[in-house]
Amino acid sequence: MIKKVAILANGGDVAGFNAVIRAIVKTAENNGIECYGFIDGYQGLLKNEFERLSTGEDEMASGILQKGGSIIGSSTNANVFNYKTINEKGEVEYKDLSEVCIENIKKDGFDCIFTLGGDGTQKSARDFSTRGVNVIGVPKTIDNDVACTEITFGYNTAVSVAMEALDRLHTTGETHHRIMVLEVMGRYAGWIALESAIAGGADVALIPEIPYDINKAADKIKERMKEGKTFSVVVVAEGAMPAGGTATILNTRDNGAGVDNTKLGGVGQIIAKQLEELTGLEARNTTLGYMQRGGTPTAFDRVLSTKYGAKAMQLALDGHFGVLTVIKNGRLDCVSLEDVVGENTEIGAVSGNTNKSNIRKVTMEHDLVKTARSIGISFGD
Ligand code: F6P
What we know:
Layout: E1 4-9, H1 17-29, E2 34-38, H2 42-47, E3 50-53, E4 83-86, E5 92-95, H3 98-108, E6 112-117, H4 119-130, E7 135-139, H5 155-176, E8 178-184, H6 191-199, E9 204-206, H7 214-226, E10 232-237, E11 249-252, E12 262-264, H8 267-279, E13 282-287, H9 299-317, E14 323-328, E15 331-336, H10 337-341, H11 345-350, H12 367-374
Parallel strand pairs: 1-2, 1-6, 6-7, 7-14, 8-10, 8-13, 9-10
Antiparallel strand pairs: 2-3, 4-5, 11-12, 14-15
The structure holds 6-O-phosphono-beta-D-fructofuranose (F6P).
6-O-phosphono-beta-D-fructofuranose binds near residues 76, 143, 185, 186 and 187.
């Protein structure tokens, strides 16, 4: 019988973090279980900093469904299995501090830890699970690139924000006869760019999974010019790359080993300049950035997050640990964390990736790609 559980939110924030927290807490309360939240993700687990979470009047988890961000914070630089420390000589030293976390969990008597996060977060969750900790993961990221699930929470809100930006870029682009480029996030996956291009009526969508030829993208715009359309809208995923080239890196950082230290960005500006030269139309770039992560979740994300949170707590009640809540064939389900982040070649192949990583990428057979091609959106290929 579980009595006491804790939640941690980790990685870049998304709209829907709080909706998941609320659903876990409410389901826990309805079953007489005490709920806590570690502050700032795995950092809080390491430092043993946590707060009681309850939905009573004026309590921390009350009135948070529509709230952006995470009431318990989140960390993007805490790989506790390879943690960056400074030794007495002032040198950087990487240490496995997972045992400290496990001791904290035992000492505080937590029967289960819910890990809300993307693939990096779930890798650590899997590693805690193999060391005997009861863990249940919930798939979070605006990038929608977690393996084994059809959708992550936060993604739908990011797409909606990008769609609204495209609507606005349309009117200003049309007025000034310009090419309007929108750079969206997504890391090495093109889901946000692809889906917002369809929802926002873009003419060109450049995504990492389909390396582009800028001349082909320009051809699409020239075709439109021949039809008398003196403006065009282009969506570029931050990870987009030219055929034979690489993604544009804004900078690199040192958040420790085993985490993504590459900050992508800048490709939108490059594309805008190239398209201007190739078409003769003026071009402007807008980088949407953190607008995609902040603010209130859409109705879809509130419902998805609530489903995920309730399911996660139900799994804990059933004693079903070491899993990630997922949507599979449209249904709420769960899969083992090992399947999600392990080196499973079969799953890697299905998610369009290598056997080293299961990040879920856009595949050429996906309905969204076929739909986009069918209505004439150019991928620059
Ligand atoms: O993974 C989510 C995400 O928003 C990516 O789309 C983006 O590349 C990255 O995080 C930005 O990370 P940071 O918050 O460290 O700038």
